[in-house]
Amino acid sequence: MFATANESVSRTIIGTIGTALFAGACLLAATAPAAAQDAPRAQTVSYSDLNLSNSHGREALTLRIKQAARNVCETGLDDVRARTEEARCVRAAVDGAASKMAVTTAAADRG
Fold first, then answer.
1. 0.85 cut: is pTM over it?
2. Residues whose CB is less than 8 angstroms from the CB of residue 87 and which lie 6 or more positions away in sequence, other chains included
């Protein structure tokens, strides 16, 4: 019926630990979506139907890459900060694809 001093201390310690663990779990759950947004996003761009040995095929591939970049980078938000971030993301994605495209078109030129 009455708790001894040791039982009260034990309950306080266990309660404190439980509260800390619960708060940590809530913090992790709250930051998980933000961490997921930082994960690299990607979209495959098909070019098997294009003739990359001519400028028409290369232009079509460039347009596909830019469209894929816009799809991947779109945030769905309509404010200046979001638009700026989307534009930065698109530039980075297109720049990243440029070296791969150069290798692919060089192979088409040789082939």
1. no
2. none
